[in-house]
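User: Structure tokens for this complex, please. No commentary.
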Amino acid sequence: MSNGAAAANGSSTPTHTPSQRYLSTRGEDTGLSFEDVVLKGLASDGGLYIPEAIPAAEGWESWKDLSFVDLAFNVLSLYISPSEIPADDLKDIIRRSYATFRSDDVTPLIHLQDNIHLLELFHGPTFAFKDVALQFLGNLFEYFLVRRNAGKEGRDRYHLTVVGATSGDTGSAAIYGLRGKTDVSVFMLHPKGRVSPIQELQMTTVLDPNVHNLAVTGNFDNCQDIVKALFADPDINSTHKLGAVNSINWARILAQTVYYFYSYFSLARQNPDSFKIGDKVRYSVPSGNFGDILAGYFAFRMGLPVDKFVIATNENDILDRFWKTGRYEKQPAYGAAAEGGLPADGVKAHEDGVKETLSPAMDILVSSNFERLLWFLAYEFASSAGMDDEWTKKQAGQEVATWLGDLRRKGGFGPVYRDVLDAARRTFESERVSDPQTVEAIRTTYMSVGYVLDPHTAVGVEAAKRSLERAPEGTKIVSLSTAHPAKFAGAVTLALQGEEGFEFGKKVLPKEFVGLEEREKRVRDVANDWRAVRELVREEVEGEKTEGR
Ligand SMILES: Cc1ncc(COP(=O)(O)O)c(C=O)c1O
Ligand SMILES: N[C@@H](CCOP(=O)(O)O)C(=O)O
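Assistant:
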């Protein structure tokens, strides 16, 4: 499969290159514009949007000294036609999105130890990597809505009803990206009692009238399923324009692609003697919904020299099991949980199969973005038949629809064809990191270099170390640091309590989090029932529209 995999297919958007037109992974929606897919979020056939072709980043080497904002403009313009967003407007959206970050580098790279560098992605407003995409997406929604609503009044205005699911971080990042914006209501579903106390406070202390926090009796996957059920419901879709902030929204993946390029150039700048532009780098990515690592895959397919992506999972290890067995199954047929009862490392497994770990944002049973990778793997497999591009794409869409149908009906699919698995293994490898190993990674990192890792980042660092043991001598790895440690006080304190010089309040806690628990909160409990959520959404949006917001 080449970088510019597609030829133009006679789509309805002739001013767009193939990488600026979008199709659904399940094959039924094609030829959509960037604005269409950003506002729709999820395709009507239940699939996720992907560009019809991955563009080659021609001359990417010359981007090496660009600021984050200028680099972002170069990357994003390959996927967004200037006929949709003129260049100056896109530059302005990007500039405003990253002006809210506490670091001039936006996503600074630091040397951790040996050949491991950390890509710090938590310098945005909510101290999590999600801000990189959600600050941008919030401004993008606003841009499209202002344009659509020019000269319109009252009920003629396009009102976006954002519904999202969070295991902790997407929620606050989306809320901070959208709070107070005109013509948008935000409904954020989190699993009640299964996000960290700081994460919960970050969401529930935002009192803007357009923000609604819903605590669902259930797990993250139940929240994600409710969101998908709402998108699939013709009833609410005819009365409300639903919008997505989860990584099912293509703009989330696209914005995250930028920091793979940026970190690559930072690595070259910081290591002039041992890493040159053109050398291959390895990335370790703490993974749950597979969005962050998929953004890296796009950067790689655009031409960034990457030797491997390491998928780092916690004990909710559906991805790790896929890479080991070729089977994608909610319930493991092998490994700790299959050995009967609680696994040896003592993690609590809920009846629903999701384990409650020290890295709760990754407590996810089914990784929604894996579907996008599956499409590219299926496309590559189908292209060996030597048919034309239209046939090949159709075939890929059908294959994905069959796999996802089996996942829904039978709880899993696979083993996939050997060639598909081999292709997945050429670009990715995987590691599963248990809670005790996570604690140990936080402790040993602190003891050796004095750096405090958050538990998700620790999963990535532990996987990075294991991967380097297999890698060719001198390989450099960038491990993604996806959240600030202060968001996960329990895990960090468990690992570091009593260690010399460690004091959570002084060493870890940023001033922005002090006093959060004293603030007023707003949250509603809801059952794990998508119809009940639908009625609540209707009621609230009606109220907002009546008040003219
Ligand atoms: C802190 C943190 N790390 C890692 C992840 C996993 O990222 P992804 O879901 O994109 O795989 C998440 C949640 O998405 C997260 O919040
Ligand atoms: N870990 C996420 C779960 C939602 O994933 P998303 O990237 O698809 O929004 C979270 O913290 O909410």
